Amino acid sequence: MNKTMQEMQKEVDTYISQFKEGYFSPLAMTARMTEELGELAREVNHYYGEKPKKSTEKEQTIEEELGDLFFVLLCFANSLNISMEKSFDLVMKKFNTRDKDRWTRIEEGEEQ
């Protein structure tokens, strides 16, 4: 079953709402996102970069690290009462207007 962004935000809110601590402050949330982004970068570097994983390091996946980052992003949005659907629509409008001619388009019939 595919979930909407609104459903995902609600699921995260339901999860966080069961704890007295609730959402972290915006500053702490930014630190958490930075931490998760660093973990994602480390995994990407292990898979695609020049730095192999140590034999003693736990096996993580890029998918798992993206999920961690996404969870914290949804927490951040919820804590500030921001709809990620609206945020997404705003950024796509920007890309489809301001940046519409920024990149070289693939012509019809042209291979990628």
From TrEMBL:
GO MF terms, alphabetically ordered: hydrolase activity
Highest taxon above the source species: Bacteria
Keyword list, A-Z: Hydrolase
Keyword Nucleotide-binding in record: no
Location of the NTP pyrophosphohydrolase MazG-like domain: 24-103
Protein name per the record: Nucleotide pyrophosphohydrolase
Lineage: Bacteria, Bacillati, Bacillota, Bacilli, Bacillales
